[in-house]
Request: fold
Amino acid sequence: MDKYPKTLLEFEKKFSSETACRDYLYQLRWPNEFCCPRCGHNKAWPVGTVLFQCARCNSQVSVIAGTIFHGTRKSLTIWFRAIWWLVGQKNGASALGLKRILGLGSYQTAWAWLHKLRRAMVTPGQDRLGGIIEVDETYIGGEKPGKPGRGAAGKSLVVIAAQIDGKRIGRIRLRRVPDASGKSLAGAVQEVAAKESVIRTDGWKGYNKLKRFGYVHEIARVGVAEGPGENLLPYCHRVAALLKRWLLGTHQGAVSHEHLDYYLDEFTFRFNRRTSKYRGKLFYRLLQNAVCIEPVTFQQIVKNGRERK
Reply:
């Protein structure tokens, strides 16, 4: 099959029916061959809208069971359109915009769908960054009273790791941390960067122990000839500026601290695929992940936000 549609017209033609969407998910979930969870047989035939029946033991398997679509009452055609709309917009989509474009019954439904899709924007078992990596932190949140700088109160601290690719930014990773202590910062670096990578930071003491964890630690310092306004970590600062502009522009800054991780995942997904020629590739990658992650309910999203490892 063609991996993904390249234009809206191709999308509408390819996914005009529930059967077409079901068969596409089937290919993504079992790219090599079907495998019955009960007997392991590799042959099955479609039954109804989303079910496949094993040719040996006759057990029925839903193509959406155990995915983000698990238990949905909406058709797959609507879900596919929601995904296309989300990835097709350069700056993303708001819950209100999704509700209006698809005619969903409530704002809460659109909000929950977007959060489920953001969970699927994290590729299971994704590789860590390597090579030369700039690392810095930024605070996300509105104006709050209290201590400035790394001790700012009432805001969320986000660690930015930007892989340097020549004179441009390669892939990035974003991690929310509780504070700027050495334990928190080193833990974030270990999550996103492969051992023996070159980690370039400012002189903050929280990064002093990175060498103990197998990294080459470089401290960016102001040169003698340059003035005090020199940008020591330009790649991280650029990512921070784009992140804040995106949160303010697409979501009007109305992002709660409890759910910030979802939005960081979406920004990372979009940024790392910013050079893709076709938006359909993002659609394809998102669906690939969507059939691999466990489902989550609206109540779980509201109560717990994203689980922290």
In short: Confidence is low (pLDDT under 50) at residues 224-229. The beta strands are 44-47, 51-54, 60-62, 132-140, 156-165, 168-177, 198-201, 216-219. The radius of gyration is 22 Å. Residues 132-246 form a domain with the Nucleotidyltransferase; domain 5 fold (CATH 3.30.420.10).
